[in-house]
Amino acid sequence: MLRVAVPNKGSLSEPATTMMKEAGYAQRRDTKELVLTDADNGVEFFYLRPRDVAVYVGAGTVDLGITGRDLLLDSGSTAREVMALGFARSTFRFAAPAGSMGSVADIDGRRVATSYSGLVRSHLDTHGITAEVVHLDGAVETAVTLGVADLIADVVETGTTLRNAGLEVFGDPILRSEAVLISRSDAGGATQGEPDPALETLRRRLHGVLVARQYVLMDYDCPSELVERAVAVTPGLESPTVSPLHDRSWVAVRSMVPRKQTNAVMDELYRIGARGILVTDIAACRL
Questions:
Q1: Span 51-74, mean pLDDT?
Q2: Exposed, middle or buried by CB within 10 Å (0-12, 13-18, 19+), for 212?
Protein backbone atom coordinates (compact mmCIF):
# COMPACT_ATOMS: atom_id res chain seq x y z
CA MET A 1 0.00 0.00 0.00
CA LEU A 2 1.00 3.59 -0.59
CA ARG A 3 1.76 5.21 2.78
CA VAL A 4 0.79 8.89 3.06
CA ALA A 5 1.36 11.29 5.97
CA VAL A 6 -1.27 13.97 6.64
CA PRO A 7 -0.98 16.77 9.25
CA ASN A 8 -2.95 15.83 12.35
CA LYS A 9 -3.57 19.38 13.61
CA GLY A 10 -2.93 23.03 12.95
CA SER A 11 -3.76 25.19 9.94
CA LEU A 12 -2.64 22.51 7.47
CA SER A 13 -4.79 19.70 8.86
CA GLU A 14 -8.35 20.52 7.80
CA PRO A 15 -7.53 21.78 4.27
CA ALA A 16 -5.31 18.73 3.66
CA THR A 17 -8.05 16.36 4.79
CA THR A 18 -10.64 18.19 2.68
CA MET A 19 -8.42 17.98 -0.39
CA MET A 20 -7.89 14.25 0.08
CA LYS A 21 -11.65 13.75 0.36
CA GLU A 22 -12.23 15.74 -2.83
CA ALA A 23 -9.63 13.53 -4.50
CA GLY A 24 -11.71 10.47 -3.61
CA TYR A 25 -9.79 9.14 -0.60
CA ALA A 26 -11.29 8.07 2.71
CA GLN A 27 -10.30 10.19 5.70
CA ARG A 28 -10.63 9.81 9.45
CA ARG A 29 -13.80 10.88 11.24
CA ASP A 30 -12.25 10.99 14.70
CA THR A 31 -9.27 13.27 15.34
CA LYS A 32 -7.92 10.66 17.77
CA GLU A 33 -7.31 8.23 14.91
CA LEU A 34 -3.65 8.05 14.00
CA VAL A 35 -3.87 5.56 11.13
CA LEU A 36 -6.57 4.97 8.52
CA THR A 37 -6.55 2.37 5.76
CA ASP A 38 -8.33 3.16 2.50
CA ALA A 39 -8.40 -0.36 1.06
CA ASP A 40 -10.41 0.65 -2.01
CA ASN A 41 -7.64 3.00 -3.15
CA GLY A 42 -4.69 1.07 -1.77
CA VAL A 43 -3.55 3.89 0.52
CA GLU A 44 -2.71 3.94 4.22
CA PHE A 45 -2.89 7.37 5.88
CA PHE A 46 -0.82 8.35 8.93
CA TYR A 47 -1.78 11.47 10.89
CA LEU A 48 1.40 13.15 12.15
CA ARG A 49 2.54 16.47 13.58
CA PRO A 50 3.06 18.87 10.65
CA ARG A 51 6.72 19.35 11.60
CA ASP A 52 7.33 15.60 11.60
CA VAL A 53 5.86 14.85 8.16
CA ALA A 54 9.00 15.77 6.21
CA VAL A 55 11.18 13.76 8.60
CA TYR A 56 9.15 10.57 8.14
CA VAL A 57 8.97 11.02 4.37
CA GLY A 58 12.70 11.70 4.11
CA ALA A 59 13.47 8.60 6.18
CA GLY A 60 11.32 6.47 3.87
CA THR A 61 8.92 5.49 6.65
CA VAL A 62 6.08 6.85 4.52
CA ASP A 63 6.03 7.41 0.76
CA LEU A 64 4.28 10.77 0.53
CA GLY A 65 3.17 13.56 2.80
CA ILE A 66 1.51 16.96 2.98
CA THR A 67 3.33 19.70 4.86
CA GLY A 68 4.37 23.33 4.47
CA ARG A 69 7.25 24.27 2.19
CA ASP A 70 8.74 26.16 5.15
CA LEU A 71 8.56 23.05 7.35
CA LEU A 72 10.11 20.90 4.62
CA LEU A 73 13.10 23.23 4.16
CA ASP A 74 13.50 23.80 7.90
CA SER A 75 13.63 20.06 8.60
CA GLY A 76 16.72 19.41 6.51
CA SER A 77 14.98 16.28 5.24
CA THR A 78 15.97 14.67 1.95
CA ALA A 79 12.30 14.59 0.95
CA ARG A 80 11.49 16.49 -2.25
CA GLU A 81 8.58 18.72 -3.21
CA VAL A 82 6.29 17.09 -5.78
CA MET A 83 3.67 19.80 -6.24
CA ALA A 84 2.23 22.91 -4.60
CA LEU A 85 -1.31 22.49 -3.24
CA GLY A 86 -2.58 26.06 -3.24
CA PHE A 87 -3.53 26.53 0.41
CA ALA A 88 -1.89 27.72 3.66
CA ARG A 89 0.09 30.38 1.81
CA SER A 90 2.38 32.54 3.93
CA THR A 91 5.48 34.73 3.72
CA PHE A 92 8.50 34.21 5.96
CA ARG A 93 10.36 37.42 6.79
CA PHE A 94 12.78 39.18 9.11
CA ALA A 95 11.40 41.82 11.47
CA ALA A 96 13.13 44.18 13.90
CA PRO A 97 12.28 47.24 16.02
CA ALA A 98 10.94 49.96 13.74
CA GLY A 99 13.71 51.87 11.97
CA SER A 100 16.57 49.77 13.36
CA MET A 101 17.38 47.63 10.32
CA GLY A 102 16.95 47.97 6.58
CA SER A 103 18.69 45.03 4.91
CA VAL A 104 19.98 41.52 5.53
CA ALA A 105 23.50 42.93 5.96
CA ASP A 106 22.32 44.64 9.17
CA ILE A 107 21.76 41.21 10.74
CA ASP A 108 25.50 40.45 10.88
CA GLY A 109 26.59 39.86 14.48
CA ARG A 110 23.04 40.07 15.84
CA ARG A 111 20.76 37.54 17.53
CA VAL A 112 17.80 36.21 15.51
CA ALA A 113 14.89 34.47 17.26
CA THR A 114 12.81 32.04 15.21
CA SER A 115 10.90 28.78 15.25
CA TYR A 116 12.53 27.85 11.94
CA SER A 117 16.20 27.75 12.91
CA GLY A 118 17.29 25.42 10.10
CA LEU A 119 15.67 27.59 7.43
CA VAL A 120 17.10 30.81 8.88
CA ARG A 121 20.63 29.44 9.24
CA SER A 122 20.56 28.26 5.64
CA HIS A 123 19.33 31.66 4.43
CA LEU A 124 21.96 33.56 6.39
CA ASP A 125 24.74 31.25 5.19
CA THR A 126 23.63 31.86 1.61
CA HIS A 127 24.06 35.60 2.15
CA GLY A 128 27.35 35.25 4.05
CA ILE A 129 25.85 36.61 7.27
CA THR A 130 27.15 35.50 10.68
CA ALA A 131 24.51 35.69 13.39
CA GLU A 132 23.35 33.80 16.46
CA VAL A 133 20.11 31.92 15.77
CA VAL A 134 17.95 31.54 18.88
CA HIS A 135 15.40 28.74 18.53
CA LEU A 136 11.98 29.34 20.11
CA ASP A 137 8.90 27.14 19.83
CA GLY A 138 6.39 29.98 19.91
CA ALA A 139 5.61 33.63 20.70
CA VAL A 140 8.63 34.71 18.66
CA GLU A 141 7.40 38.31 18.37
CA THR A 142 8.05 38.90 22.11
CA ALA A 143 11.71 37.81 21.89
CA VAL A 144 13.02 41.33 21.26
CA THR A 145 11.00 42.90 24.06
CA LEU A 146 12.21 40.24 26.49
CA GLY A 147 15.83 40.74 25.45
CA VAL A 148 16.29 37.25 24.00
CA ALA A 149 17.09 38.53 20.51
CA ASP A 150 17.72 41.66 18.44
CA LEU A 151 15.33 40.67 15.67
CA ILE A 152 13.06 37.81 14.66
CA ALA A 153 12.28 35.69 11.60
CA ASP A 154 8.69 34.52 11.41
CA VAL A 155 5.64 33.90 9.26
CA VAL A 156 3.96 37.19 8.34
CA GLU A 157 0.35 37.44 7.22
CA THR A 158 -1.17 40.86 7.91
CA GLY A 159 1.71 42.16 10.05
CA THR A 160 -0.65 43.30 12.81
CA THR A 161 0.98 41.14 15.49
CA LEU A 162 4.42 42.49 14.59
CA ARG A 163 3.27 46.11 14.66
CA ASN A 164 1.67 45.56 18.07
CA ALA A 165 5.06 44.34 19.28
CA GLY A 166 6.79 47.44 17.85
CA LEU A 167 8.40 45.50 15.00
CA GLU A 168 8.49 46.02 11.24
CA VAL A 169 9.56 43.74 8.41
CA PHE A 170 12.64 44.57 6.37
CA GLY A 171 14.58 43.12 3.45
CA ASP A 172 13.29 40.67 0.88
CA PRO A 173 11.09 37.73 1.96
CA ILE A 174 13.09 34.71 3.15
CA LEU A 175 10.52 32.35 1.64
CA ARG A 176 7.03 32.28 0.17
CA SER A 177 5.46 29.14 1.53
CA GLU A 178 2.33 27.06 1.01
CA ALA A 179 1.17 23.50 1.52
CA VAL A 180 3.05 21.04 -0.68
CA LEU A 181 2.93 17.35 -1.51
CA ILE A 182 6.32 15.77 -0.80
CA SER A 183 7.82 12.36 -1.54
CA ARG A 184 10.91 10.34 -0.77
CA SER A 185 13.88 11.50 -2.82
CA ASP A 186 13.99 8.08 -4.53
CA ALA A 187 10.23 7.80 -5.16
CA GLY A 188 8.89 7.52 -8.68
CA GLY A 189 11.71 5.59 -10.29
CA ALA A 190 11.72 2.21 -8.68
CA THR A 191 11.76 0.06 -11.79
CA GLN A 192 13.45 0.88 -15.08
CA GLY A 193 12.96 4.58 -14.44
CA GLU A 194 9.17 4.28 -14.57
CA PRO A 195 7.10 6.36 -12.12
CA ASP A 196 5.32 4.64 -9.25
CA PRO A 197 1.72 4.09 -10.53
CA ALA A 198 0.15 4.66 -7.09
CA LEU A 199 2.11 7.87 -6.56
CA GLU A 200 1.18 9.13 -10.02
CA THR A 201 -2.50 8.33 -9.41
CA LEU A 202 -2.54 10.35 -6.18
CA ARG A 203 -0.64 13.23 -7.77
CA ARG A 204 -3.01 13.26 -10.76
CA ARG A 205 -6.05 13.24 -8.47
CA LEU A 206 -4.76 16.16 -6.43
CA HIS A 207 -3.97 18.06 -9.62
CA GLY A 208 -7.56 17.39 -10.71
CA VAL A 209 -8.82 18.92 -7.46
CA LEU A 210 -6.68 22.02 -8.01
CA VAL A 211 -8.00 22.47 -11.55
CA ALA A 212 -11.59 21.88 -10.43
CA ARG A 213 -11.18 24.62 -7.82
CA GLN A 214 -9.74 27.06 -10.33
CA TYR A 215 -12.30 26.58 -13.12
CA VAL A 216 -16.05 26.43 -13.66
CA LEU A 217 -18.01 24.91 -16.53
CA MET A 218 -19.90 27.53 -18.55
CA ASP A 219 -22.79 26.71 -20.92
CA TYR A 220 -24.56 29.22 -23.12
CA ASP A 221 -26.59 29.60 -26.30
CA CYS A 222 -25.25 31.80 -29.05
CA PRO A 223 -26.41 32.94 -32.51
CA SER A 224 -24.47 30.93 -35.11
CA GLU A 225 -23.08 34.02 -36.82
CA LEU A 226 -21.58 35.22 -33.52
CA VAL A 227 -20.04 31.95 -32.36
CA GLU A 228 -16.47 32.83 -33.35
CA ARG A 229 -16.59 36.01 -31.28
CA ALA A 230 -18.09 34.11 -28.35
CA VAL A 231 -15.58 31.24 -28.33
CA ALA A 232 -12.77 33.78 -28.47
CA VAL A 233 -14.01 34.84 -25.03
CA THR A 234 -14.28 31.23 -23.82
CA PRO A 235 -11.49 29.29 -25.56
CA GLY A 236 -11.43 26.58 -22.88
CA LEU A 237 -8.40 24.43 -22.17
CA GLU A 238 -8.23 22.76 -25.58
CA SER A 239 -11.27 23.99 -27.49
CA PRO A 240 -14.90 24.61 -26.52
CA THR A 241 -17.68 22.20 -27.42
CA VAL A 242 -20.10 23.70 -29.96
CA SER A 243 -23.35 21.82 -30.65
CA PRO A 244 -26.26 22.67 -32.98
CA LEU A 245 -29.65 23.45 -31.46
CA HIS A 246 -33.11 22.62 -32.85
CA ASP A 247 -33.20 26.19 -34.11
CA ARG A 248 -30.27 25.99 -36.56
CA SER A 249 -29.61 29.69 -36.26
CA TRP A 250 -28.34 29.06 -32.72
CA VAL A 251 -25.64 26.83 -31.20
CA ALA A 252 -24.92 25.63 -27.67
CA VAL A 253 -21.40 26.21 -26.34
CA ARG A 254 -19.70 24.56 -23.38
CA SER A 255 -16.27 25.59 -22.06
CA MET A 256 -14.12 25.67 -18.94
CA VAL A 257 -13.59 29.22 -17.65
CA PRO A 258 -11.29 30.48 -14.86
CA ARG A 259 -13.41 30.84 -11.73
CA LYS A 260 -12.10 34.33 -10.94
CA GLN A 261 -13.19 35.58 -14.36
CA THR A 262 -16.69 34.08 -14.26
CA ASN A 263 -18.79 37.24 -14.00
CA ALA A 264 -16.64 39.30 -16.36
CA VAL A 265 -16.89 36.53 -18.99
CA MET A 266 -20.66 36.27 -18.52
CA ASP A 267 -20.99 40.04 -19.00
CA GLU A 268 -18.94 39.95 -22.20
CA LEU A 269 -20.88 36.98 -23.62
CA TYR A 270 -24.18 38.70 -22.93
CA ARG A 271 -22.91 41.87 -24.62
CA ILE A 272 -21.96 39.84 -27.71
CA GLY A 273 -25.43 38.27 -27.88
CA ALA A 274 -25.18 34.97 -25.98
CA ARG A 275 -28.13 33.99 -23.82
CA GLY A 276 -29.01 31.26 -21.31
CA ILE A 277 -25.58 31.54 -19.74
CA LEU A 278 -25.17 28.95 -16.98
CA VAL A 279 -22.26 28.25 -14.64
CA THR A 280 -21.62 24.90 -12.94
CA ASP A 281 -19.00 23.98 -10.34
CA ILE A 282 -16.58 21.21 -11.31
CA ALA A 283 -16.33 18.49 -8.65
CA ALA A 284 -13.34 16.69 -10.20
CA CYS A 285 -11.46 16.46 -13.45
CA ARG A 286 -8.52 14.87 -15.27
CA LEU A 287 -6.55 16.77 -17.87
A1: 96
A2: buried
